[in-house]
Amino acid sequence: MSSQDDRDDPQSASRRNFNRGMAALPLIGMPTLALANAKFPTATVNTTKLAITDTEVTVGQLHSATGTMAISETGSIQAERLAIEQINAMGGVLGRQIKIIQEDGASDWPTFAEKSKKLLVNDRVAAVFGCWTSASRKAVLPVFEKENGMLYYPTFYEGLEQSKNVIYTGQEATQQIIWGLDWVQKEKNAKSFFLIGSDYIWPRTSNKIARKHIENFQKGKVVGEEYYPLGHTNFNSLINKIKVAKPDCVYAIVVGGSNVAFYKQMKAAGLTSDKQLLLTISVTEDELLGIGGENCNGFYACMKYFQSLDNANNKKFVDAFKAKYGAKAVIGDVTQAAYLGPWLWKATVEKAGSFDVDKVAAASPGIEFKSAPEGYVKIHENHHLWSKARIGQIQADGQFKMIAESPNLIEPNPFPKGYQ
Amino acid sequence: MSASEMWNIFLMQGFAGLSLFSVLLLMGLGLAIIFGQMGVINMAHGEFMTIGAYTIFMLSSLTETYAPTLTPYYFFVAIIVAFILAFAVGWMAEWALIRHLYRRPLDTLLATWGLSLGMQQIFRSTFGAKEVSPTLPEWLLGSWAPAEGLDIPINGMFVMGLTLLVTAGVFLMLYRSRWGLRVRATVSNRTMANAIGINTKKTDRMTFAIGCGIAGVAGAAFTTIGSTGPTSGSLYIVDAFLVVTFGGAASLLGTVASAFGIAQTQSISEFFLTGSMAKVLTLLTIITILMIRPQGLFALKVRR
């Protein structure tokens, strides 16, 4: 594969001339490649028998391409592929082109564990970009720690975890929750909250943190806390309960198909944004495709990234993504976080001067990525990212309009004191 | 909270129960015909609903692109198309698969489960893994507010009306038409029905296809309250079987009664307990009643 061909470069005035020039490229390419590898001989950059040659480095990609989670994980697969393609077009990592071995976790947690073992033991990949749900991450974590692999995990999650073998490119719970709650309290004068979630670990842990913050730090009131089974589609009784409790703000962490039913029924019951303030941390552009922006416009979401962010990095990223996956493709928070993975890994390997997992793990803290679509990110000692929090308002066209952003990068704190 | 507010919540909660009742009934009706009347355990029933839902999605996109002025009206046509499509697929499935397995109920279970997996993959390849939502006509969204603080969901009323229509249709067909007579004869004694000149094979195919068609209508209606994805069907299938089994497999009246009972238990307990506890309570009640009455609420008195 000639990766230059895939590069999306809006500046290149004439692609035809560029392609004609390609014929001469191998001749020019050879000496530079030899030069790079003379500088980074395989024997020094790879002392642990990873799948690395003089010209190629193999990485793994482990997501659900089939099963229920394919809905969410497809965006991450696409973003990681785009990043790797762009890196290859720039010359790869330490002069080596990245080759991907993709495995399918099939929305089944034991399968994730099995495939991660295959990637680490049989394929000897240098890094793995993958997992989405906390359950899949928990399933592969022992494998990565035992076989000493490196995982770049993209999803915002509940925290309470930290590993030498994982870089968390999404937000841990406090980064997403606390600043958002403070914003609705200050800007929207919300004093009473109704917490809603799907019934599994992430919404429950997140709501626990939210409740502690509301009660202990904001001196506000939680007037209700409710969980519904995954896939639940009938929310009329819950909506009546909200009407009885009359909270200033509904705090919603409903996921999957339930999400769609919840917002359609909120609208049908007359609880629209002009009558009810709602803040969510589980609706991104991807979910809005299913819900339909017209069913929930005016509500707020707290994320670190929105497709509509107005900066040069993001414009480039959105253009490249759409050029590759179609003009109708949307990019949600997690998709952007997945895009960061390969870039952070590249920067870390280059800083460490080695692909060895121990050296990469040790070199990770302090790694910066200045051209991240979300702005600037940096890896913390605890292997999470410093990142901003942003409030977006849902628009009828399925996009967000950014209303506010935290002035500074928020420190990741996966084990928050006073919130347990 | 004032008395009038209490009264409003009471009314809206009552409506929530009725609305869940109509959803469950609509889910169960097609299955009541296929499972109840024919004894075929159709694990792909949810996917036939999904066919209906995707039909709405396709027609809504087509309408938006080619005839945006028709957006307020396309929904009615789309429901009929959903019926026809699901009917046709059901007809083919019966011909290709089910008819070979009538005397082997456990094999039908496996075969239709395989069919459901296959259909899910077809949906995924055709429409993508992400969930979609059709653009609904404006009049279907929002609520009807006859008084201050009282909001009745319009989509709920629509589903309720549709359920009434379909249920009445099924009753009429089963008890007032030649087809219904043949179905009932076939159900009660297949050999004898065959002997007196009823083409039982044709009756079977027609019955199966009609059951699937009704599932298509149900799926179409659910686009107004929920989501459409490749695996949406698997969300509905458990509830559908629950309704039919609890009601007593061979009784249509039982299906109605059981849908009503489950919906009210669920909706009332959801209001007073948390969501997950309400589900536990509902399922426990159903299991207890089924332990006492394994044949379900209403059972046909048949000489075995």
Task: Please characterize this protein's 3D structure.
The complex is a heterodimer of chains A (420) and B (304). Chain A has 420 residues and is α/β, with parallel strands linked by helices. Helices cover 42% and strands 18% of the residues of chain A. Chain A is built from 14 helices and 15 strands. The longest helix of chain A is centred in the first third of the chain and has 20 residues, at 70-89. Residues 1-31 of chain A have low confidence and may be disordered. Chain B is mainly alpha-helical and 304 residues long. Chain B has one domain. Chain B has eleven helices and two strands; from the N terminus they run ααααββααααααα. In chain B, strands 1-2 form a two-stranded antiparallel ribbon. In chain B, β1 (143-147) and β2 (150-153) form a beta hairpin.
What are the key terms here?
heterodimer, A: alpha/beta, Rossmann fold, 2 domains, seven-stranded mixed β-sheet, five-stranded parallel β-sheet, elongated, B: 304 residues, mainly alpha
Give a quick rundown of the structure.
With 420 residues, chain A is of the alpha/beta class.
Write the layout of secondary structure elements.
The complex is a heterodimer of chains A (420) and B (304).
Chain A lengths: L14 H8 L2 H15 L2 H4 L10 E8 L6 H20 L7 E8 L4 H14 L5 E3 L3 H14 L3 E3 L12 E3 L4 H16 L3 E7 L2 H17 L3 E8 L7 H10 L3 E5 L3 H12 L8 E4 L4 H7 L8 E4 L8 H14 L7 H20 L4 H7 L4 E5 L2 E5 L5 E2 L3 E5 L5 E6 L15
Parallel strand pairs in A: 1-2, 1-3, 3-4, 4-5, 6-7, 6-8, 8-9, 9-10
Antiparallel strand pairs in A: 10-14, 11-12, 12-13, 14-15
Helix pairs in contact in A: 4-13, 5-6, 7-8, 10-11, 13-14
Chain B lengths: L2 H36 L6 H22 L7 H23 L8 H23 L15 E5 L2 E4 H23 L1 H11 L1 H6 L4 H23 L9 H16 L4 H21 L2 H18 L12
Antiparallel strand pairs in B: 1-2
